[in-house]
Amino acid sequence: MTDLKMMNEYEKQSAEHNRPKNDDRxxxxxxxxxxxxxxxxxxxxxxxxxxxLLGAYSYRLYLRQAIQYPGPxxxxxxxxxxxxxxxxxxxxxxxxxxTLGFLTGTLRLNEKSVALFLALITTGTVFxxxxxxxxxYSGRGKTALHLLAFCCMFVMPLxxxxxxxxxxxxxxxxxxxxxxxxxxxxxxxxIVLLLYFRYLEIYRSGxxxxxxxxxxxxxxxxxxxxxxxxxxxxxxxxxxxxxDCIADRGRTFGKQVLFGIPVLISLGVVIYETMVLFTGExxxxxxxxxxxPGLLAWNRHPVAALLQSAVFPLAIFLGNLPRLKxxxxxRFAWLIWLTGLxxxxxxxxxxxxxxxxxxxxxxxxxxxxxxxxxxxxxxxELLTWWTKCRxxxxxxxxxxxxxxxxxxxxxxxxxxxxxxxxxxxxxGVDFFVMLMxxxxxxxxx
Length: 445
Hints:
Blueprint: H1 2-67, H2 80-89, H3 95-106, H4 111-136, H5 142-151, H6 180-200, H7 209-225, H8 228-247, H9 253-277, E1 287-289, H10 293-298, H11 302-319, H12 323-326, H13 328-346, E2 347-349, H14 361-392, H15 396-402, H16 405-436
Antiparallel strand pairs: 1-2
Helix pairs in contact: 1-4, 2-3, 4-5, 4-6, 5-14, 6-7, 6-14, 7-9, 8-9, 8-13, 8-14, 11-14, 11-16, 13-14, 14-16
């Protein structure tokens, strides 16, 4: 009994002795959890504000474009009034025009419904691009990629008036605010790519019926918005599947055919749109081989214009050549970009729409994609460097001083690429501010 009392007394003394340590651990754990929750709330609040601002400003812009409101710099020039009119008159070729006609004609809503619909499409595109970037660059850095998705909605060609006078006309950019059918295609095309990059890694094992049907519907949806996307996507996908078939020595030929059938099915929509666009009242134009008439007409230095439009992704391309071999998604992004560029440079309409640049919309989407993919790659590499600084200790400058000559050169290269991206972003924001004041996208012409 004496020994038992002594053991109980010892346990009580030990518990009293360890209680402060346990309390400290509990308090530290609680403080850590509170900090993590605070970060989450701050992050959600930040993105709620960003989505709200983008939605509000794009709504204001689209509304004034729809009613051609007189602004300080002009009357908010856009294709939106024409698209609404075609939707009402039932002469539309695009699902976007049909939707606008349904809102304002069938439902008899005013232009606010049109502006709200387009604003939702615009903010939705940001979210979809963020999800796409998270799929391509998994791991940490999702918040940075989310911010990047917002930035990529604004990037524009580098504006050098001494070289070429127009910030938009004659250039090529994925940031286009005046054409509702392109805005719809941009949204739908991002959905297609989100599915495609997911299925590209698993299709050899076989897609489920649900996955195959979802991919088919997504392709039909984007073609109903605007047919230009498929003209760039289909050749790039065909080359990718052919490469896979050769690499597998034909053993997965059936899988490649099954994965490619949705593209063929969706081409039925393109055939219908072609009949609408090139027959009846819209006849008088046809697709011909021509060397980029818009590029040559609106630029004093056409080659410089091509570089101004894509100097940042080209810089990323030159610094990451080995990645083309090992990263299928990165390689496909460049393949579809090249397909879009060739379409832009080699095909055009003749007749009354010769200078309208209607075969450049596909390349515009490719610009949006390649800027986003290359910017995501840049951010992930910068985050890797930053993480290394935190692990090794010391400031970024101290880590730079301790780095090898090769590592220093790589970091300087990343800083140059970051500067180029910020320059593209500045030009895009400046252009957007001008549009918000009623300025024309044809400024400088």
